[in-house]
Design a protein that fits this description.
Elements lengths: L6 E5 L10 H4 L8 E5 L5 H7 L4 E5 L16 H6 L4 E4 L2 H6 L4 H13 L3 E6 L3 H5 L3 H12 L9 E5 L13 H19 L7 E5 L4 H8 L6 E4 L6 H10 L1
Parallel strand pairs: 1-2, 1-8, 2-3, 3-4, 4-5, 5-6, 6-7, 7-8
The protein binds phosphoenolpyruvate.
Length: about 240
């Protein structure tokens, strides 16, 4: 197994104005953990300019096209131009609020790779799907449908985010997370072979200082995607320290 540097990624969602950028001044970064914040697109440029050494900045979404008549959208190349290095694609809020399909997410992820950036592809089941015993089937289908062509350990990250755990304070059991992450590693191996061993698999969904150490201690969990707890440096620092 290759040595994997964990990634702790913050997703600010539609929160924050320029005044919020003071939070990144208080971050306690660690060379053994890669740390990323994906602010609203309005803040990418200012955050990238202000970021301390060791803090990566990214976007929460992008369009699949490089440019064109797509009012309100931004392209991966625009993110790169602002100093961003990652783009989250397929977050469940995009899948639900904007009807994004696996095929669209795959196209977006491929646009991210084409721009020389790293794609964080989100997958995860709903509560009804978990209750019905189809969580692995759902996640397997999402990986198969949204993994970009040309995915490698360097350009692609997969985030497992059970929809019912996002912003709810609820998390799966550690055994359930371990089982899903083992399943995802095996599925990825089926798609990209040995390169799958180095792909970072993040867990996301109500990660907080109190549970981060246990979750990050699971074998195939290589960091986290953190929503609410990434907004305040104190909480995010505790999660970085746990990684
Ligand atoms: C997210 O939306 O990616 C997320 C994990 O949110 P939260 O940590 O708030 O559950």
């Amino acid at each position: 197994m290759p040595e994997i540097t964990p990634l702790v990624a913050g997703n600010w969602k539609m929160n924050g104005t320029r005044a919020s950028l003071t939070e990144i001044d208080a971050l306690e970064l660690d060379t053994e953990v890669e740390v990323l914040i994906c602010p609203p697109s309005t803040l990418i440029s200012d955050m990238a300019d202000r970021a301390p050494d060791g803090l990566d900045v990214g976007a929460q979404d992008c369009h699949a096209a490089g440019s064109g008549a797509h009012t309100g959208d931004i392209s991966a190349a625009m993110v790169a131009d602002l100093g961003g290095t990652f783009v989250i694609v397929g977050h469940s809020e995009r899948r639900t609020d904007h009807g994004e399909t696996d095929a669209l997410i795959k196209a977006k992820a491929e646009a991210v790779l084409a721009a020389g950036l790293i794609a964080i592809v989100c997958v995860g089941e709903t509560e009804a799907e978990r209750d019905a015993g189809t969580a692995e089937e759902v996640v397997g289908t999402q990986i198969a449908g949204s993994l970009p062509a040309g995915a490698t350990a360097e350009n692609t990250v997969i985030a497992y985010e059970p929809v019912w755990a996002i912003g709810t304070g609820r998390t799966p059991t550690l055994d359930d997370i371990a089982q899903m992450h083992d399943f995802m590693r095996a599925e990825l191996t089926g798609h990209i072979g040995a390169a799958a061993d180095g792909v970072r698999l993040l867990y996301g969904g109500s990660v907080k200082p109190a549970n981060a150490k246990d979750i990050f201690g699971i074998g195939n969990v290589n960091g986290g995607l953190v929503g609410g707890a990434s907004l305040k440096a104190a909480d995010f620092n505790a999660i970085i320290a746990a990684a």
